[in-house]
Amino acid sequence: MRVVFKTSYNRDIDLHEHGQSRGKIALLAAIMIALPFLVGDYYLAEAANTLIWALAGMGLMVAVGHTGQVSLGHAAFLAIGAYADSALMNAGLPFVISFPVAGLITGLFGALIAVPAVRMSGIYLAIATLAVFAIVEELVILLEPITGGVGGIMAPSITILGISFDRYGALDHFYWLCLAIVALVTWGYANLMRSPTGRSFLAVRDSEVSARALGINVTRTRALAFGLSSGVTGLAGALMGHYIGFFNYELFSIFISINLLLVVTIGGLGFIQGAFLGAILITAVPQLISIMRDNLVSVGIDLSGIPGLDTMIFSLILIGFIIYEPTGLYGRWLKIRTWFEIFPLARKDMFRRQKSYLKTERMR
Amino acid sequence: MELLQLIIGGLANGCIYGLVALGFVMIYKASEGVNFAQGDMMMLGAFIALGFGNSDEMGLPFFIAVILAMVLMFGIGWGVERVVVRRIFGQPQFALVILTIALGFVFRFVAGSIWGYTPLVLETPFAGQNLRGGGIVISLADLVTIGVTLVLTIALWAFFAFTKIGLAAQAASQNQMAAYIVGVPVMRINSLIWGLSGAVATVAGVLYATRGAIDPNIGLLGIKAFAAAVIGGLGSLPGALLGGLIIGVVEPVAGRYAPGELAKMSPYIIMLIVLVTRPGGLFSQIQMKKV
């Protein structure tokens, strides 16, 4: 069992609890940077996809995990990010400008929605975001000059300072680009969560009344969190557009929203690491299913005739996690780690969930 | 005349939205949670009725098939509450939202594996029968839909307003602990309400099926029904019906007189307008606590 002596306030709010965790992050970063030299193109593309999903997951995590605002419409922000980025690049802007601007546009749109949405809570917000998603989906078809309508558009190839970052032509460059962006956002996110703004997100999530009593402007905080959340998701959408190459409105279906929710819930609500674990799961499981399918065919069971099996398996995983492990994969890992750290002293009820009696939202 | 025709068709359509909305307003009234699988329960109900009633399946008479389907869906609703939803009793509402979305996918998969993904038609005694008068045509199916919806809404409203169980359900949602203290069996009430909402979903599904073919993806209609319930004010049964009717009428009228995509967006636009101007919905159930 390790005891960390905190001798100053800065030590207390440090990103890393001790030097070892700093070392682990550095090691992880080194492996991720070296990945193009270690694996083939297929797995590299999958790794880039995972990074993009992790970015989108972090976007949703700000809203769901850290501010307690459930959104069922984040696919809409992915779409806005992807279309804004591609449209700006088609208009002749370089990626270095179009990418942040796409994120900004999405963030502003999200904040705009957040203005009415923050007056709602819980269920109302979830349904309102669902409605926003439905509206954006139709708008994409309606705005054909920009979005290519039903036909879809081609995401232009990325070039920065004469170096190609094309998804197909220079996959390793594209992967490093994704990695750099994800690393930057993660660093910013982790730092945000230890700043007063990030702390106020948590306060709003845990108790609105006490947050207000502490002098936090709840409306502003919620709008800011939602705007940030949609902005980061928009960035992920822009990258996703480049990753897919050619896309139309069908790429950003309601299932993507659900998958994103899956990422944050299964990964672990309220943990940045959770977004990454969830993203790994969501990109790995379809691969595993197809491998399993091939193996089952060789022993005479043919599952290819059953459509929707992937969604079914995802749904069952989700139900299992909600019931048995609501803190997600990262929460489970924390429990295991704690058990080892304090070895003979672990008790059964250490992580017992707090249950609460429900009170109506309709009485204020 | 054309407008009138559109409105009548829209009213019947709106009744179906209203019925689906009723199902989840009931659950909201009893447990303050929203069942996002309500649309898929409607779909499953319709398919079960089809399985009992169609001549190439079990071939039972229509009304017996519908009643059997309602009983079975009551059981499924009850079972889902007992087996799955009860496990997250006391967890934040958010858990229920995700859980029911996942359940919806499971229902869709089950229906798809049993009945396939090609659209099927439910055989009904009032298929293709129309009433004519004054230049407009009203199909019997539309009239039945409107009639059944009205009766069901009034019955459910009376159930919540006057019966002991209905009042107990409302108490359980307003303050669970207080309800326990005065002796309300909160969990049993929840199971009952889930069962009832399954039966109501079946009625909605059968009525939907009288108006066209069904496939496992019709459950997505549930999203419009959410909009209906929010417009009416979550927790208000007449509000849910009114919301459904508004959406049902506006949709075809907008489709006729406005550019195509706008009609599809109209339910959500109306809903957002209502949410911005009257956050509690038209029949707002939100009250300020008097201290």
What does this structure look like?
The complex is a heterodimer of chains A (364) and B (291). With 364 residues, chain A is mainly α. Chain A has a domain at 20-253. Chain A is 69% helix and 2% strand. Chain A contains 15 helices and four strands. Chain A has helices at residues 9-12, 19-38, 41-64, 74-90, 95-117, 122-142, 144-147, 171-192, 196-206, 208-213, 218-244, 254-267, 272-298, 309-324, 328-341, and strands spanning 153-154, 159-160, 163-164, 246-247. In chain A, the strands form two sheets. A two-stranded antiparallel sheet of chain A has the order 1-4. Chain B is mainly α. The longest helix of chain B has 30 residues, at 2-31. Chain B has helices at residues 2-31, 38-53, 62-83, 93-115, 140-162, 164-174, 176-181, 186-210, 222-232, 237-257, 260-277, and strands at 130-133, 136-139. Chain B has eleven helices and two strands, in the order ααααββααααααα. Chain B has a two-stranded antiparallel ribbon with strand order 1-2. In chain B, helix 1 (2-31) packs across helix 9. In chain B, a hairpin with a 2-residue loop joins strand 1 (130-133) and strand 2 (136-139). Chain B has one domain (2-218). Chains A and B meet through helix 6, helix 12 and helix 14 of A and helix 4, helix 7, helix 9 and helix 11 of B.
